[in-house]
Design a protein that fits this description.
The chain is α+β, with helices and mostly antiparallel strands. It is built from 10 helices and 13 strands. It binds adenosine-5'-triphosphate and magnesium ion (MG).
């Protein structure tokens, strides 16, 4: 075990067989057999070091995040920091492979954290050092920064609509958009994404950003958005998802002249 600073320390793979680390590897109900299999998967992924870092905690260990499907921790891959999503043993899906395919696909369009590698139980991807969109907007004082972040989010969502891939969870964008330390937004978690469902990324994200989300009021105050007009423009866009109709949305949100 190597201490980097108070509460941030790293371990190697063999430590993962023991408490409290096994609790992260096989959350929430570990068994030695499952842990041994998962350690082999990590060796195949070339992950040999894990670091306990992040704003969330499990069993007293710092982690990057926790959801219904995975525990996300900081790991090292080729000596570079990475984010490792570990499938929970009680997840309602038996593999992360579908999520890996979806992420790989959106990466082709510059969307999402870069996927480095994957196995049944792990997704190894670019580490986003930043915060959730809600935390970021709450601290924000600079209007231009807000505009460039919102433009990038909306452009990514328009691209997803264009390629017919519905993210599926953008109405809960507080959990699914991270802003990195260079103020770039990144959409995460493509496990419920679908190419079969009708793609409604723009409608969902606009609903979160301008109408319903906990930061909608602040965004509307800064940008002075006319919600009635935006509502009508979204209805038109929904019927006909063209670049022209998308540009009208950007204009109404005062994001483009
Ligand atoms: N690439 C990453 N870099 C940094 N942190 C990340 C990364 N991916 C995920 N996280 C953190 O981990 C959390 C959980 O990740 P994710 O949403 O993929 O898990 P999940 O189990 O599918 O969650 P949910 O149940 O909310 O759908 C995120 O909200 C985020 O805080
Ligand atoms: Mg998820």
């Amino acid at each position: 075990m190597a201490y980097l600073s108070k509460n941030i320390y790293s371990i190697t793979l063999k430590d993962l067989l023991f408490q409290p680390y096994i609790q992260i590897l096989c959350y929430p109900k570990p068994t030695i057999e499952e842990a041994e299999n998962r350690i082999k998967e990590l060796q195949n992924l070339n992950v040999f070091k894990i670091e306990f870092f992040g704003k969330k905690e499990v069993s007293g260990l710092k982690i990057l995040g926790k959801g219904c499907v995975g525990i996300v921790i900081k790991a090292y891959f080729n000596n570079k920091p990475a984010a490792l999503k570990i499938r929970r043993v009680d997840a309602n899906r038996d593999s992360l492979i579908y999520e890996a395919f979806m992420l790989k696909k959106v990466n082709e369009y510059g969307i999402g954290p870069k996927l480095y590698n994957y196995t049944k139980n792990f997704l190894l991807m670019e580490f986003i050092n930043g915060q959730s969109i809600v935390e970021w907007i709450k601290q924000l004082t600079n209007k231009e920064k807000l505009k460039s972040v919102l433009i990038k989010i909306l452009e990514d969502c328009f691209k997803l609509d264009e390629i017919g891939l519905d993210h599926g969870e953008l109405s809960r964008a507080n959990k699914h958009i991270l802003i990195n330390n260079s103020d770039t937004p990144i959409i995460i978690d493509f496990e419920t994404a679908s190419e079969k469902r009708y793609a409604s990324n723009i409608t969902k994200i606009c609903n979160f950003l301008f109408f319903k989300g906990e930061i909608a009021l602040k965004i509307n105050e800064v940008l002075n958005v006319s919600l009635n007009e935006l509502y009508n423009a979204l209805k038109i866009y929904k019927k006909n998802k063209t670049r022209e109709n998308f540009e009208k949305i950007l204009k109404l949100c005062n994001l483009k002249a």
